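Onboarding guide, step 5: your first structure request.
Type a short instruction followed by the sequence, for example:

Predict the 3D structure of this protein.
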Amino acid sequence: MNNTESKRKPYVREMKKDWWLKNAFYTGYMIREGTSIFVSIYAVVLMWGLMRLVQGQEAFNGWLESLQSPIAILFHVIALAACLFHAKTWFALAPKAMRIFRGEDLVPEKPIVIVQYVALAVVSLLVLIIVA
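The system replies with C-alpha cells like these:
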C-alpha cells in the first residue's frame, strides 16, 4: 500500500535552517566544509593562470596584473586563512579516520598530528627553496 491509499499522514521531522548552530561539533563541521568553497575557487584561479600561461607571455602577464587588484589580494588573504583552517581541522581528524596500530596498541593521536605538521613544514620549505 502506498501513501496515496493511506489515510495516515507521514511523519516529517521539522528541520530548521540553523540546526547546525546549536551544536559546536556541527558548527565546526559546517565551517570546515564551507572553507572548501574558497579552496575550490582558488583552484579555478590557478587553472585560469595555467590557461593564460599556455596562451603566451602577454596573456599570462595580464593575469598576473589582475591578481594585484585589492579585491584579488583580499580574496587571497581569505583563501589562505580558509586553507589553513581547513588543513588544521583535517590534521586533527586524521587520527580518527586513520587508526594506526603498533602491535596490539593504538598509536596516540598527538604523534600523528605532529608528523603531519612536520611534513607540511618540510614540503613548504622545499617549495620555497625550489621557487627561490
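Each response can be followed by summary notes, for example: The CA atoms of residues 35 and 84 lie 9 Å apart.
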